[in-house]
Amino acid sequence: MSKHAAGVDPVVEPAAAAAQVEATVAEASPAAAPALRTHDELKALAESGAAELGWDAPARDVIAWVERNFDLSSVAVACSMADAVLPALVADQMPGVDVLFLETGYHFPETYATRDEVAANLRVNVVDVLPENTVEQQDRLLGKDLFARDAAQCCALRKVAPLRRTLAGYELWFTGVRRDEAPTRTNTPLVTWDEANGLVKVNPVAAWTFDQLVQYSDDNLLPVNPLLSQGYPSIGCQPCTRKVAPGDDPRAGRWAGSDKTECGLHV
Ligand code: SF4
User: What is the DSSP letter of 240?
Assistant: First the structure.
């Protein structure tokens, strides 16, 4: 159980305390890593999964393939907390799955609220993936507002490295990457071997459109980040995310005014 769970107020009734613990967001713990298959074995599995599922199998079939071939404890779902569609889809077939949230320390209040809502309402275990240093420590070590001077280094320290460390404890991760999000994402496969992180990467909603995503979220009354309907179709850290005009590239508001288009997680 998480450090947060240990902090449950002792005057809370046992049932309420249990509910509070259920809704708790855990912190990433490498000690919990299960025994994993070798990279060669996993790579072969990714290749056979890609061949079996092809280019546009339904998300349900993609998740069913994962369920048949992987233990629950070896699987994680990445979630930016813009919406809860991916965690909900996976939890429907694999309840109790770990959902990784990159806790950079720079998110919008609405994003933290969505994370807490997901932890409280879905059958998932939300895990905060933390950087080595807090924002205050990073400011002391590298100067204030690194994101404004060197966004690549800031993302490398606060997103890419912590995620890589955490993914080392899993055999497979699900992402919500969609082909319609950006020109850099049009060739996203359903299943692939992620060489950079050394595990299988599965993108069950790669073929979905933004409208399909919103429809699924509405139909299933899922938690959703209110910023999505306030001009932020792609939500990242607060200092690096701007509103975009209707009809513009959904990711145009990410690192606006710079050449940067990806944080490095999916390249
Ligand atoms: S998105 Fe911005 S604030 Fe967040 S880790 Fe990257 S550079 Fe830093």
Answer: G
Of 79, 154, 240, 263, the active-site residue reads 263
CA dist., res. 130 & res. 9, Å (int): 24
DSSP 159: I
Mean pLDDT of 184-189: 92
Average pLDDT over residues 251-263: 63
Query: Domains in the chain, please, with CATH?
Result: 22-240 (3.40.50.620)
Provide φ and ψ at 31, rounded to 5°: -65, -20
Nearest atom in ligand 1 to 106's CA: 3
Up-side HSE of residue 237: CA atoms within 13 Å toward CB? Answer: 20
Instruction: Pick from 80, 104, 130 the residue to mutate for probing ligand 1's pocket: most ligand atoms within 8 Å of its CB.
Output: 104
pLDDT reported for residue 2: 31
Interval 216-244: pLDDT, tens: 999 999 999 999 989 998 899 999 999 88
User: Which among 101, 144, 145, 159 is the best mutation to test ligand 1's pocket, defined by most ligand atoms within 8 Å of the CB?
Assistant: 159
Between the CA of 134 and the centroid of ligand 1 the distance, in Å, is 13
